[in-house]
Amino acid sequence: MIPESGSPHGGDDGTPPQGFVRPSLPTLFLAIVPPLFMGISDQTIVSTALPSIIQSLGGFDRMALVVIAYLAAVTVSAPLYGRLGDALGRRRMMCVALCMAVVGSAFCSLSVSFEMLVASRFLQGLGGGGLIGLAQALLGQYVGPRARAKYQGYLATIAMVASTFGPVAGGLITGHFGWRWIFALNIPLGILAFVLVMRLPPRQTPREKIAFDYPGFLLFAGFVATALTIIETVKRGAAVHSTLFLLVAIAGAILMLLVLRERRAAEPLFPGDLLGRPSIFFSMLLAMCHGGLYVSLLTFIPIYFALGHGVPPRELGLLMLPVTLGIGSGAFVTGKLINRTGRTTLYPAISLSLASALLFLASVGIETLSPWQASIYFAIVCLLLGSVMGVVQITVQTEAGIKRLGIATASVVLSRSLGAASGTAFAGLALALTLDLPAGASATSADISAEMLQPGFHNVFRLLGCIAAAGAAMAFLIPRRRI
């Protein structure tokens, strides 16, 4: 049995309610580790398979949609899972999330067109939006405050392994078996996770009344969908088309309604009282910049290696290993420095400034480096990016206080996911606008030469350099600088 277990439905001192059943530690971890691993690896495993996907299905100028569709679905569904998990039971909602993720993965592996793959990735993301957050919440449900910190450290290690595993496994699986298998392997893993989650004790307390900002949720989802549609419209060369102006007007109207709704909602999707605090507000913006940087790099670096240097899928995974290890190592070193000095925002402010300089240098001469030299170069960039999220979490949680810990942490996840989706979309736009592609949207990698790619990737790295500089500015602006 788990020591110091508690439940949010128990007493104020953390004691569990009458009849509360505590699972054993192996039972709990066997239940939450597979969903957590699936949710994190699904965000990155597709990156090294993208060259093979576009060779099979086409859609080079829209390839970022394979990543964006998943991230957008995670962004809009994560807060819904969190609130429904509080009200209806986290075990039940985890089962729902797993079912959607498995069904989405099955459709991804069976996709016969680029459009079907994007739609299937969105469905997969609707499930993925609950996997990570509900895994963390289930740990908090069954483990008391004093023991929770130690077990959260274990989950952080698993998260780093999953993040590193994704691109490496994606390249190796694609090279040996084909890109469809990176999705098909989710099916047995998801079914196993479902069985293990069902072994957890059922909810012991009555259902709560659901107080969720559904109008705000729908407006937010509509705004995200419209914004991504605008970016895709610009990609197709409709910069001055009437459709574009109509979409911009619709996005503006939805955003205005969303702001008005959030000001009046009793349980707003975006807690205004927290966002009104400068340390939290600038931390959220920093999280957005970090999400855009990291996911864009993991998405487009494999494309650069595959099409710019002709690297086969099997080697792509190995080339991405230093890159993915870089961010984990950066997070580890930053954690040690914070623990020793108490300083927080100093590290991302300096690191992102250096990362910005390196990305601007990449925009003028990265093609002169061999693939392995470029891999080490980007590993250094990601090492610097590793300084960000630990600082954001510590700052936001300290500012919010223990009573608002859950909603503050969820807001960080939402900000990072939104930044990842929008950053990847704009990076894809920067690449697509410089390419003179054959007519039609089904261009494959065979239609793209290394010479055609160079100006586009120069623009991508310039854009990411600007995002890194903006992130450094946000870190400098955070008032709380120590813990």
Description of the structure:
This is MFS family permease. Residues 28-483 form the Major facilitator superfamily (MFS) profile domain. The chain crosses the membrane at residues 63-81, 93-112, 118-139, 151-173, 179-198, 210-231, 237-260, 280-304, 316-334, 346-366, 372-392, 413-435, 460-478. The chain has helices spanning 25-44, 50-57, 64-88, 90-109, 114-142, 145-177, 181-184, 186-198, 214-235, 242-264, 272-275, 278-309, 313-341, 346-365, 371-385, 389-400, 405-432, 450-477. The longest helix has 33 residues, at 145-177. The protein has 18 helices and no strands. It is 76% helix and 0% strand.
Supply the key terms:
single chain; 483 residues; mainly alpha; Growth Hormone, Chain: A; 3 domains; disordered N terminus
What's this, in brief?
Its main location: membrane. The protein is mainly α.
Helix content: over 70%
Quaternary structure type: single chain
Per DSSP, what share of the residues sits in E-state strands of 2 or more residues? under 5%
Mean pLDDT: 79
Membrane topology: Multi-pass membrane protein
Main location: membrane
GO molecular function, one term: transmembrane transporter activity
Pfam families: MFS_1
